[in-house]
User: Fold this.
Amino acid sequence: MRRGDTLVVMSAGSATRSLRALTGAARVRLFIAGLAACVGLLWLGPVHAAHPQIADTSLPWWVIAVLFCAADLCLVHVHLRRDAHSFSMSELALLLGLLFASPAGLIAGQVIGSTLAQVKRGQSRLKIAFNVAQFTLSASLAVLSFHAAAGGVASLGPRAWFAAAVASTVYAATNVICVSIAISLSEGKAQFGRLHLVLSMSLLGGLTNTSLGLVAATVLRYEPSATWLLMVPAAGMYVAYRAYNSEREKHESLEFLYHSTRILNETPEFEQAVLTLLNQARTMFRAETAAIAFVPPGDDSVLLRSAVGCDGETSLMQVVPASSMRVLLDRFGAGATSLLLKAPLEPELMDFLDANGMRDAMVAPLRGETRVVGLIVLGNRLGDVTTFDNEDVRLFETLANHASIALENGRLGQSLAQLQELERQLKHQAFHDPLTGLANRSLFADRVSLALSRIERDPQICGVLFIDLDDFKTVNDTLGHAAGDQLLVAVAHRVLGCLRPGDTGARLGGDEFAVLLEDIAGPEDAARVAARVTHALRLPVQVAGQSVHVRASVGIATSLDVTAADELLRNADLAMYMAKADGKGRFKLFEPSMRAAVVRRHEMKSDLQRATARGDFSVHYQPFHDLSTGRLVAVEALVRWNCPERGMIYPDSFISLAEETGLIISIGRYVLQEACRQAALWQRRFPDEPLSMSVNLSPVQFQQPGLVAMVADSLKASGLRPCSLILEITEGVMLQDSEFTIGVLNDLRSLGVRIAMDDFGTGYSSLSYLRRLPIDILKIAKAFVDGIGEDPGVSAFAQAIVGLGRTLNMQTLAEGIEHPWQARELHALGCELGQGYYFARPMPAIEMERILEARQDELDGTLAEVIAFPA
Ligand code: C2E
Ligand code: MG
Ligand code: MG
Assistant:
């Protein structure tokens, strides 16, 4: 299809669409223009040519104008169902005009009289224009139909009566049709549903008035002095109309109020009751929007607002700032009963209408016993040609009073309290961690800022602890997220247990917690709390039916050397990072030098990366000795980083970094392969007492699925017998006390290698897991060896570990023996093996080889002695 075709095909539809795109007022304006054009055409054509009058009594145009004006000012509204029918006595004026005035006089009288009445009634310009246009059109059509029906008869007989009836019918019908079209155009949808009813009511009223008019005309024509007598039935009818109307209105208002109050009292859900009430009010007053806003007790900064809009859109109890309705609340607070808002208005009320997208509105307060508890607003009277009037406001005010009483009767207070609780919960949720209930990051940052600003006024010290759980990921990965969550909740409880009531505990996310300590004496106070926290976390936690061990690294910073909150938080974070780098499970107080240290650590990371790629590592060996014979039975492989710039770097400085980066996997593989190769070589060279090789495994390596295969490959490639290999695991591996860990250990064990538990007693010591694990050797941590011989308590502890090993059928080895008495005492306690500077420091393979040679010589000598001097 070509472009032009589309335009042609679519032109009819697009005209309708563009008409729809106009606002109601614009459509009505177009319609008025159309009416005016019709009037113009009729006036220039047939009306102008119409016969002036049928009777010889002549009324001037201004009398007709006065009659029309009076008739329009004394409108009688009759309400039927939800429709308002307005009767005016204008048919009377029309009839007298048709009979006794010229067409020009009639139409001029109609235009001028009706316009004056409309202006007097304060109608909008649009409505005046519409009414004048439609009245003029109806009057023109009435003139034409009257003269057509009268057929040139000039006397006031039955023919003229008939013509008058026809003209009044045409007049009433034209009015009704014009009004229906205007309402349809203004509201954007056809409003002809009840047209027949309105039409019949109008015709009835019109004919009644016409008969009255004819009687009046006859009297005027034949007995003018009796005209006054007509005033009595006319006034009587008018009073009867008004009385009926006001009764009807009262009845309808009562019915509406009764329904509204029933809704409020009987709808069990408060929110639902409010919505139904709003809908009811919206329909009753033909308003586009209805809203109700409550002022929660004790907090006048917000409002709880429910609203219904034209297309059924609703919003329920939304928290909005009270400033949006402050101007109204202030007026009601000062005693105003209700407000009818329509231009012209004071600027602040006009602003309110504009801000809420309203042309006009009615607002009434909801008054409680002691205060204004809220307000109810109806906005935008539907239909551009009408607006709210004082009658509406009075009824609306009564509705608001009824609503206040019904709502206040126990339900409002209670419901508002519930809503307030809900609001409090929402606020709490926004600032608290849902899992642990601790403050969240944003609340914590806020509190720190507040604490620092208080310090500016009143010098004191505050401290921040950053707490990061060590190896939490392992728990999550092996026991599942639910268990991880339980652990976090338990940690939160323990952290809180270490704090004073005024301190703030927070969860910053993941496994990161933080504490704000206000008004402390100095960094020592913060360090004491950090010590309490690390200690409290050491006790195992029951999670998913298992006892899980958790440790945390804590960084401490105080307000002493900062001014800004984010600096304080950054310092605590740095200190925590350093605590982790220093081997985890400890706390560190921030020092300015840490900034440089962190930078160094970052540099070191990339250096380590390069070193791994280049293979800048070597392995040193430290012997294990049999404590009863003193003989060297095995060596432990200890990695060294030979950094071209910094020289030899010890593992304590880079293992955690290697674990963090994952480089430990390739470093560990290298150490294992090298150690196996070296051990196999030494075994071949010194076969008489085959030396065992002990290799450290990091928990990170332990997580790797290929660990067992890697060990098997290393053994195979080197030719080392599995029974000569010992793998040292740390208690960190036991964080994941799971089937997976035990499975891997069993797999390693089934290769034939032995498993040693390194640094036993320093970590997550739990006797229960020890029983379940396939461990061959317990290495007693240096910490329990150091005080041996000096502190009886320490010896007792070492003795307990030895006893435990014996019970569980494990060998025991004491690490870090530096003095002969330690070796003696440990031997006396039953410990079988020892390692430490007292025997030998870790050394390169070449030095180790010399020791092994010496051992071989010693062995050879012993054998020679045996041979020379048999026992
Ligand atoms: P570890 O496995 O407990 O090794 C013993 C550490 O204690 C060694 O430190 C050793 O030099 C030191 N040591 C031994 N006897 C004494 C003593 O009498 N007094 C004192 N003060 N220290 C003594 P090193 O070589 O610096 O290793 C430190 C830690 O680094 C090791 O502790 C081990 O956990 C880790 N490590 C070393 N090599 C490796 C490796 O190849 N892989 C893994 N994953 N970790 C390793
Ligand atoms: Mg070790
Ligand atoms: Mg050790």
